[in-house]
Specification:
Blueprint: E1 3-4, E2 14-22, E3 27-29, E4 31-32, E5 46-49, E6 55-63, E7 69-73, E8 85-90, H1 92-111, E9 116-121, E10 126-131, H2 139-151, E11 157-162, H3 163-168, E12 186-192, E13 196-199, E14 214-222, E15 226-233
Parallel strand pairs: 1-4
Antiparallel strand pairs: 2-3, 2-8, 5-6, 5-8, 6-7, 9-10, 10-15, 11-12, 12-13, 14-15
Amino acid sequence: MAELLFRDDAYARACDATVTAVDERGIRLDRTVFSPLGGGQPGDSGSFRLPDGTALAIVDALRDGEDDVVHVPAPGVALPAVGTRLRAEIDWERRHRHMRFHTCLHLLCAVVPYPVTGGRIGTDKAHLDFDLQGAVLDKAGIEAKLNALVAAGHAPRPRWVSAAELDASPTLVKTMSVAPPRGAGRVRLVEIPGVDLQACGGTHVASTAEIGPVAVVKIRSEGKRNKRVVVAFAGEDVGA
């Protein structure tokens, strides 16, 4: 079990760590700032700085159970031995974009109050799929409400509840297709006071103002009942 520093400090960019295991999946550390793939948010990339000064590229981070992370090295690199001390550092610009989008999707849950059936976060755009139950969405209205919440500078804050408390309040799990991580019998909630409260293991910005202006770039059908709402940072080119 590793010390998952990103759970309590999403702004930690680097840490000193010791290699605890190496196998065909990748490298495990005793502590890490690398947030793994989960909940629609990509795993972090970055690098390990080894004792001799060389850098080992890390191209992905994957969850290993609830309380460990597998750091996936670039193909063909020499792997460090168990016991090696190193400096682990994430690609901060990429992570920060994920944090901004992830927090924006929490706001989108508040603006579009319907069950979430799926979602994904990228570096250029993000989306949620909603089971609208026959409702009609107003693209311009959603964008205006989102940007009002962004500009208000709400401060997301994490807190922990027991797995039993979560089971007693199933509405705290808003994404039907993703189960929140349950490390050591507890679950992290992310609350944006007065706006949104849900179970979530991802990384978020300290203030919604940090997200910056956003645009709803498209709303499209995903099956008979679902609508996909795609958001991007305003003024950026977004692919199909």
